[in-house]
């Protein structure tokens, strides 16, 4: 039985966020602080609407841009890490990993509800924010949302979220 499937994808030069981070891995290793120029691509699937759109490119692009702009030029810190503890440090946020700690001005950080600021988790976070943005605009939340986050050229992670 033949069938058709529609999707739209946005990936624009400005869907980029340049952010600081460090991740933990293998249980006992914590990277030194560093940054990436992350690039984001978003795809959604669904039925065509009365405009014959799956989703308006412009709305999808603008919602994605608003989310990534919040991350741009910020230090990304995980609030759910079992290894990195965040605490108040006067006007700063202190991140502690074993005997190492870093202190950052609070307004130069984004505290993300993730366990590790890997590209996978950043993609998941952006996908969640996109669902909220769609609902917040009174738009139908797309059946399938894919978010790709490219940490550096040739290294990317993607999440596919499906409503079913
Ligand atoms: N599946 C994943 N693997 C790794 C992630 C990730 O998010 N998901 N992240 C990292 C680190 O962030 C690490 O910094 C990446 O290291 P590297 O590739 O060396 O990054 P560079 O930007 O320095 O790239 P170069 O090609 O070395 O210049 C590790 N793994």
What this model shows, in words?
- The chain is α+β, with helices and mostly antiparallel strands and 164 residues long.
- The protein has one domain: 6-pyruvoyl tetrahydropterin synthase/QueD (Tetrahydropterin Synthase, Chain A), CATH 3.30.479.
- Helix content is 20%, strand content 41%.
- The chain contains 2 helices and 12 strands.
- Strands 1, 2, 5, 11 and 12 form a 5-stranded antiparallel β-sheet that branches. Strands 7-8-9 form a 3-stranded antiparallel β-sheet, with no helix packed on it.
- Helix 1 packs across helix 2.
- It starts with 6 loop residues before the first strand and ends with a strand.
How would the blueprint of this fold be written?
Layout: E1 7-10, E2 16-21, E3 24-25, E4 29-30, E5 34-45, H1 57-71, E6 75-78, E7 85-89, E8 92-97, E9 100-105, E10 109-112, H2 119-136, E11 144-152, E12 155-162
Parallel strand pairs: 6-10
Antiparallel strand pairs: 1-5, 2-5, 3-4, 5-11, 7-8, 8-9, 11-12
The structure holds ligand LPXRUNBV.
Ligand LPXRUNBV binds next to β5, α2, β11 and β12.
Catalytic activity: 7,8-dihydroneopterin 3'-triphosphate + H2O = 6-carboxy-5,6,7,8-tetrahydropterin + triphosphate + acetaldehyde + 2 H(+)
GO molecular function: 6-carboxytetrahydropterin synthase activity; metal ion binding
Enzyme class: lyase
């Amino acid at each position: 039985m033949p069938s058709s499937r529609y999707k739209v994808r946005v990936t624009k030069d400005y869907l980029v966020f340049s952010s600081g981070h460090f991740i933990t891995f293998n249980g006992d290793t914590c990277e030194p602080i560093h940054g990436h120029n992350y690039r984001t691509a978003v795809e959604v699937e669904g039925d065509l609407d009365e405009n014959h759109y799956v989703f308006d490119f412009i709305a999808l692009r603008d919602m994605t841009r608003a989310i990534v702009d919040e991350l741009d030029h910020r230090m990304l810190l995980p609030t759910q890490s079992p290894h990195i503890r965040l605490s108040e440090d006067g006007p700063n946020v202190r991140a502690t990993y074993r005997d190492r700690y870093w202190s950052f001005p609070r307004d130069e950080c984004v505290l993300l509800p993730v366990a590790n600021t890997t590209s996978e988790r950043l993609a998941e976070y952006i996908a969640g924010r996109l669902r909220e943005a769609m609902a917040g605009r009174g738009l139908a939340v797309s059946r399938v949302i894919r978010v790709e986050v490219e940490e550096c050229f040739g290294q990317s992670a993607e999440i596919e979220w499906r409503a079913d």
